[in-house]
Amino acid sequence: MPANKNNGHDAAGQGFKAHPLQYPVLRYSNLIEALEGAPGERPFVTFWVDEDEQETVTFAEFRRRARLQAGALRGQGATCGDRVVIVMPQDIPAMTVFAGAMMLGAVPAFLAYPNEKVDPTKYRSGLAGVTANLKAKLVVIDRDFPEEMIGCVSLDEEATLVRAADTRDGSAVEIVPNVLTEINSAAFIQHSAGTTGLQKGVALTHGAVLRQLEHLTRALDIDGAKDSIYSWLPLYHDMGLIACFMLPVVRHIPVVMQSPVDWVMRPESMLQVISEHKCTLAWMPNFAFQFVPRRTRPNRRAQYDLSSVRALINCSEPVRASSMKEFQDAFGVCGLKPGALQSSYAMAENVFAVTQSDPQSSSGPARLWADGSVFRSSHQLVTSAEGTPGSICFASSGRLLPHHEIRIVSEAGSDLPNGAVGEILVKSDCLFEGYYNRPDLTEKAIVDGWYHTGDLGFRMEEKLFVVGRKKDLIIVGGENLYPQDIEEIVASHPAIHDGRVIALGLYNPDLGTEEILVVAEVEREELLADAEVIEREIRSRIAAGLGVTAGTILLKPPKWIVKSTAGKAARSTTLEKLKKEHPELNIGGV
Amino acid sequence: MTPEQKQMVEFILKRIRKPNLTIDENTPLVSSGLVDSMALGDLLLELEDVTHMRIPPGKVKPKDLDSVTLMFATAARVGKPQK
Predict the structure, then answer these.
(1) Measured between CB atoms, which of B30, B41, B56 is closest to A117?
(2) A207 pairs with which residues across the strands?
(3) Do B34 and A295 touch (CB under 8 A)?
C-alpha cells in the first residue's frame, strides 16, 4: 500500500508521483528466464479463428517451438545482439519466432504484415527504411508470404530475407535458450506505423519490461491461477505485445488471441471468445467500445456471457466516457459487471502503462464534467454538474503506477496546477532509453530524464485525464498516422499544388475515434470542375500508400491555404480558417 | 445484376454515404479506398443476411470482398449454413 495517503501529491500539484512500494525484487532477470519458469503443462496461447478452428499450445509446447525457431534463426546467421525483423501474420508461429529470437539473445521487432491495399512500392520503401535503421540481420516472413510480394520486400544490404522454419517437419534443431541475458540489455524493439513512424524504433530492455509488468500486476491484482487474457490486438502495438504477450509470459497466464484482421471483420466474435473461454482481462482502444456494440445486433446479445470479465481496459486513444457507457449499456444483459470497464494511459516509450484506474471500483474510472465551449476555445477547465447543457464529460485514465511520476507543463515548460491542461511529461523506472539509432529524435523526446509525450491532459484528485493526442498525430482506430505521410501522398497527385496540403484528424463521435480530413489546393482553379474524379484518385492513393481510408477530402482553389513566412502551410491559421468556413466539421471537438 | 447483388449495392451506398457516388457489382470498393476495414465488417454481416450463410472472417481476406461480385463468390466458396 502507498506509504503516504496523498500518494505524493503536493499542494501545488507539482511533481505528482506515486510513492514507491516496498516489494520483492524481480523474480526473473530476463523474459526468457520467465518463459522457461512457466509450468509446462499449463495452457499458454489459444489462437482462435472461428468456433470450428482454434489451436491451444501449452507453455512446454510453445517453448519447444520457440527453441526450434531459435535453432533455425541461428542456422541462418543470427546471433546475440542481432536485430531480427518479423513480418508474419498474427498467429502462434510469429510468436514463437519472436521468442526464439530472444532465446538467442537477439533483438526482435514485429512489423505490420503488408496490408493488401498498400502499394507494394510504398511497403518496400518503408521496410527498407526500418531494416536500414535497425541494421537488421534477418527479416523473417511466413511460409505463405505471397510470392508476388517477395519482390516488394526490399532490404538494407546487410539484411537477409528468410522464411520462418516449419517446426512440424523435423528439420529444425532445438537450441538451449540463453537465460543469462543481462537485465539491462535490449529485449525487443517496437515501431509505430507509417513511413515517418517506422523510423522511431522504441528499444526496451528486459528490466524495463519486467518492472512494468510487476507494476501492472499489482495495479490489477493479477492472479496467475485465476486470470486469463483475451486479445485481438496487433502484436506490433504495445498494447498487444506487452499486455497480451509479455504479461502472460511473465505471469504464466493463458491468453486467447484472435487476428486483428479477423476481429475487425466480425467484432462480435470477441464476445463469443470471451464467453467460451471465460477470459477475465482484456484491453482495447476507445473506438472498439463503440464498434463492438454497433456491430452486434441487439437480438444476438443475450447469448453471450461476459460475467467472467473483471477488467476490460480502455487504452491507447483518449478515453471517452460516452464510448464506455455505450458498451456497458449494450452488454449489461450479458452479465458484464458494473465497474468491469476500466481505463489506462499507456505508451510504448514507457513499455506500456503509466496509469491504471482502480479495478476494484464498481463505478469504473472517475468522470468529470466541464463547460464544453470554454474548454474548446481556451483549454481551460470550468467544472459543471453532470447533465448541464453544453457540458462535456472527461473520463480519467486512473492513478499512476508505482515508480512513476508525471508533470503537466505549459508550452513554455512551466508546471501547471490541478485542472490546467498542458503537455504530459513522464518519468519512471520503465522509461525507454531512446529511439533506436535516432539520437536526434531521442534528444527532443527525453529532456532531463523526462519524456515529453506530446499528449495533453490535466490532473484532478490524484487522477490523470488525457484530453488530446500527440501533436499533429492522427489516431484512427488505435492506429497512429503521421499527417506528413498523408500530405506527401496527396501532394504527389498532378492536380494538387505541391506543398499545399494539410491532413488532420477529426474526432467522429459516431465512431469513437478520429477520421482523416485532407485539405488540398489544386494547381488551377478550373481543376475544381473535376473535383469528384480528383478526390476519388486521391482516396485511392492514400489507401494504396498507407492502407487507410480518408474520411473527408476538401479541394480548395489556389492560395486558399494560409502560408507562413517561410512559405510553408501555416497549420494552425489554416485550421482557424477551416473552422469558420466549415462549421459542420467537428474541428477541435471532443 | 441479380436482386441480391442489387440489395448489396444499395446497402453499400447507404453505408458509405458519399453524395453522387454510383457503384455497380464490379466497382472496386476496398482497393479504391471507398470502404475501410471497419465498414467491411458491416458488409460481411449484410452479406450473411442476404446469402443466409455464415462466413468465417478467418477464411476471408479484404481482397475477397473488393466488389459485390467477389463478395458473392466468396460466400459461395467459404460460406457455411447458418446455425
Answers:
(1) B30
(2) none
(3) no
The verdict on residue A564 lying in a domain is: yes
Estimate to the nearest angstrom the gap between the alpha carbon of A454 and the chain centroid: 15
Write out pLDDT tens, residues A67-96.
999 999 999 999 999 999 999 999 999 999
- Domain assignment present for B74: yes
In the numeric block, which cell numbers belong to residue A381?
477547465
Asked if the structure places residue B72 within a domain, the reply is: yes
Helix, strand or coil, per DSSP, at residue B8: helix
- Kindly report the length of chain A: 590
C-beta separation of B34 from A242 below 8 A: no
Widest pairwise Cα distance in chain B: 39
Question: Who among B33, B57, B63 is closest to A265 (CB)?
Answer: B57
**CA B23/CA A366 separation, integer angstroms:** 47
Chain B residues whose CB is inside 8 A of the A52 CB are 56
Q: How high is the ipTM of this complex?
A: 0.83
Cα(A227)–Cα(A211) distance, integer angstroms: 20
B70 touches A: beta carbon within 8 Å: no
- Beta B53-54 vs A43-50: how paired, if at all? unpaired
Which chain B residue's Cα is nearest to A297?
B45
Q: Specify the DSSP element, H or E, that contains A554.
A: strand A552-556
Q: Has residue B19 been placed in a domain? A: no
d(CA A385, CA A393): 10
